[in-house]
Amino acid sequence: xxxxxxxxxxxxxxLGRIETAExxxxxxxxxxxxxxxxxxxxxxAMALARPDLAAAxxxxxxxxxxxxxxxxxxDEGLALLSPLDLQCxxxxxxxxxxSALERVIEERARGDAAAANAIRQGLLERIGxxxxxxxxxxxxxxxxxxxxxxxxxxxxxxxxxxxxxxxIFTKAPVLASVGAGAAVGVRADSAWNxxxxxxxxxxxxxxxxxxxxxxxxxxLRDIEGRSALLLGKAKDNNASAAVGPxxxxxxxxxxxxxxxxxxxxxxxxxxxxFVMTGESSMxxxxxxxxxxxxxxxxxxxxxxxxxxxxxxxxxxxxxxxxAGKGFTHxxxxxxxVSSDRLGVLENIVATCDQAPxxxxxxxxxxxxxxxxxxxxxxx
Length: 379
What we know:
Radius of gyration: 20 Å
Family: Belongs to the FAH family.
Organism: Brevundimonas bullata
Protein name: Fumarylacetoacetate (FAA) hydrolase family protein
Helix content: 10-25%
InterPro entries: FAH (IPR051121), Fumarylacetoacetase_C_sf (IPR036663)
GO molecular function, one term: metal ion binding
Distance between the termini: 30 Å
CATH superfamily of the largest domain: Fumarylacetoacetase-like, C-terminal domain
């Protein structure tokens, strides 16, 4: 298991979920030991609402070095689930200048990957250098907006890139995210899609960020590019939200400043021999993570807390095959999202209809926990 953990895992307190014979089980990784904390808190949402979580006691499942992690591609061992359960799963988009440009390109190309390259070059020459240094909602941003409108270059994506309001949307239903080692899904009818490696912050019921994880916000570029009204179809599909491997709790050794300074790396390795690598620096984000959390909370309350994908600057444009067609996933791609202090989230791409179906909803989870006698004293 240590290969997927943060480099300084011995100093970290990590919250996750595993699949056991009894059912989904919250675990805490602390001081090199994995603890079953289901008697302390039967869900990670309940655990994160407790101020004494970092000191929680539980049934010792063994030393981390001795544990193997199971994967959907054949390894035996401990089955890691997404560390999220009852939290709402939200996402923020267009939070980096590069991703803003790519959304504009999708819109103008109408989902046609072949047309995107020429549009990309023209937009980069005109506005690429101007966007990256703008503070959203500022007087300077409003001036650039006015100029772009005058030039006929304004877009709804630029509105959320440099305007006062962030793009916040629901990425997946409660309990629908998948964890490290699981299949991650793209729709079979999508011909232009990509991974989006991101940091995910996790907030308690009061909206306070209490930890962070890694995420893959799988995106179907051709579908979203046809119309922004298809965002739900492009983003919310079976197995299309991956989070993990654990939530790293904020403490004296790891804070939001470490999130702000994080570098998120992406590796894609295809069965056809194709390899793509890249990285995204959180230092270049145009909206602060705490501002994004506050904008999420401004909509309504989240009594079970929420998780928020923070967006990515990584938008793959490298051709995979025919020149000018750009990158798109193929079934069997192995996708690794990693960051030194958050670990490694690795998944293999399947079509949504071939990935394991989402089968355990809130009702099923509550029946399972009640049958195990875990709800009587739950916080």
